[in-house]
Structures are given as C-alpha cells and as structure tokens.
Design brief:
Radius of gyration: 22 Å
CATH architecture of the largest domain: 3-Layer(aba) Sandwich
CATH class of the largest domain: Alpha Beta
Shape: elongated
CATH topology of the largest domain: Rossmann fold
Order of helices and strands: EHEEHEHEEHEHHEHEHEHEHEHEHHH
Number of domains: 2
Structural class: alpha/beta
CATH superfamily of the largest domain: Glycogen Phosphorylase B
Largest sheet: 7 strands, parallel
Distance between the termini: 22 Å
Strand content: 15-25%
Amino acid sequence: MKILILFSHSWRGGRSGGAETHAQKLMKELSLRGHEIYFVASGEQSEDEPRPPGVVAEYRLPFQSLNPWDKITAYRQLRKIVERHGIEIIHAHHRTGGYFAESIRRRTGVPYVLTVHDIWHRAPAKGLHGSIFRHLIAVSGFIKKGLVERFGMKPEQVRVIHNGVDPKPFERASDEQAGLFRKEFGIRENEVVFSLVARITESKGHYDVVEALRGLPQDLPYRLLIVGEGKDRRKLERLVAGYGVSGKVVFCGFQGEIPVLMRASDVILLPSHREPFGQSIVEGMLSGRAVLASDAGGIPEIVSHGVDGWLFAVKDTAALAKGMEALTRDEGLRQRLGEQAYRTAHERFLLTRMIDDTEAYYKWIVGLGRAQGAGTAVE
C-alpha cells in the first residue's frame, strides 16, 4: 500500500515530543512490512537532517504559515504529491493536517485517517469537527471521550489505538550499564531511585513532587531523578534548594539512553496534571519497574492501582508522598508491581500491536471507500 504520512507541525528529526516519535516508529515499521511510505511535514529541511527510516520520498510544505497564499500553495503541492505517487491513503497527524487531508479527499477521493495525540484545546468551533473529519485514531480512550463530548464526533468515527513501544532496547539494557549510570550520578547502593522522565513544566507535576518531598522523612533512602529539560528547570532548581532537598534530587538533563535509565531506576514516576497517554510509563513497565503516577487522562488505561502500579489523585501531594514512602520501604511491593507491569506492557502496549491495529484500520478505510465509491464513504 502507498501511504502518505502527513505531519503538519514542524519536524525536528523525530526527537521532539511523543507525536514525532510515534510517526517515526510508524513509518519505519510499516516500511518493513512492505508498504511504500511518503512523508510530508511542515517547515524547512536542513541539509544535514537524515530522511526518516523507511521513507521513499520526503517533502516540506508551509502548513504552519499564517500567509493564506502559502496555505493555497501547500494544498496544491500536496495534491500533486498525492497524485504523482498514486497515494492510497493519507495518515495525518495534528488537526491542521486533518484539514488538508479532508480537502484532498474531497478533490481526489483519496481517503485518510487522522491521529489525535492530544485534545485540541485551541480549536475554533469545536462542535463542528464531527462533520469535518471522517476516520480518527485516538491514542487513548481519554482522548476519544473528549472528541465525542466536545468535538461532536460519533463514537464509531474514532478508533482507540494505544501507542506501542518496542521492547527490544529495554531487554538489551544491562545491569552493568545501569550500575555505571547510578555511579555517574552518585547514587548509593541502598537508595531507591524514582525517575521522572518528562519535559520540565508545571503540567507534568514537577512542582507537586518537589512539594511532596517535604513530607518525607529526611532519613528515607531514596533519590529523585529529574530527567529532561524545559523552561522551568532553573525555577525548579531554586525551589529544590529553597526546600532543603537538594541532596535528594538530581537534575540529569536530556538522556539519550532511556532503556539504561529505566534499568537504573526502581520506580517510574509521572505526576502529570493532564496526560493523553503516558509513554514513559510503558517504557518503565517494559523494564519491569514499578510505576507511581497520577490518575490524569489516559494513565488509568495503562495502570491499575495495586495491580501493576500505584495511582494517586492529580495534585494530591500528600498521596504522592505516601506512595513514595511505601514504595521506598517495601521492596517486595516494588517487585510485585514491577513484575505485573512487565506482563501488562507485553500483553497490551507493544509496538507490533500498534502497527497491526493501524494497518488493519488502513485496509478497512480503503476497502470501505472502494466499496461505496471513492471519496463518498461515510461510516
């Protein structure tokens, strides 16, 4: 099948955010299954930027430009790309990409599907979108619920396909690598490591966890790793110092070897205020690590409290502190939750399942269009 991946945000080489990571994995895996993948993104392409793995041809168009003439140019060029390569289905990511894909469908009959990675908080005329878009993928049931309740989508228009993770890198990470990582950051052998892997911002709950540390006994043997960067880093560092918990917190910055980090951790922490899915949670589960997370957004679809993780209410710092203390003191609890988390991740959140479900949805959409007449099919 000839598939066009339409990424209407600026592309940063697959390194910026979950949507880019998702799209890059999708393109690579679909190409390995024999599909012909074409890629169109917004912005300019730098000379040294490699083509995404598995992509036959790559294009950049001015989707994000505020100039209406640029929008017209982007549409015309996109239509030429679709017709030149005989594209059979467009897979759009982000709302703007969906608008362009729908316009192409109306003119050419080429069907499309739109993946929604997060709720479109800034979208105008929210209730009209159910009559604009036809087939959508939501990365969680939480996202699907928002689309139905706030955007006028019919439930049958939206299929939930959870993000999937390739387990192989996490299986390859060794205890030796993990030991070197812990040594690099001065972590003692008896300390229980909580790792928060996320962009440093208020919505990810960084301030909540620092607040929670104030309620923990000073002699509790734990260490908190803040992994990632963000505009709030300096402010958070000052707060940590002001609360007198600098000896318990390590700012690790960006880390490229996430599987090694997960292996070096004892508990994966995600205290988000809102979370469409929770990729770092699944990565921790595939490493056999216990999870301590808020019950925000799509997280309860991944973690069941007391079964394969520990959940607490959003912004409840006392409950967060209670979970940290319990998981620090009880090694058996950590081990039990981690073992079940590993099983859950392998049963429900592997990359192969995501690709299987996406590929099947493509075929269903294309077949529906052919059966009812190209470009006229309505669920």
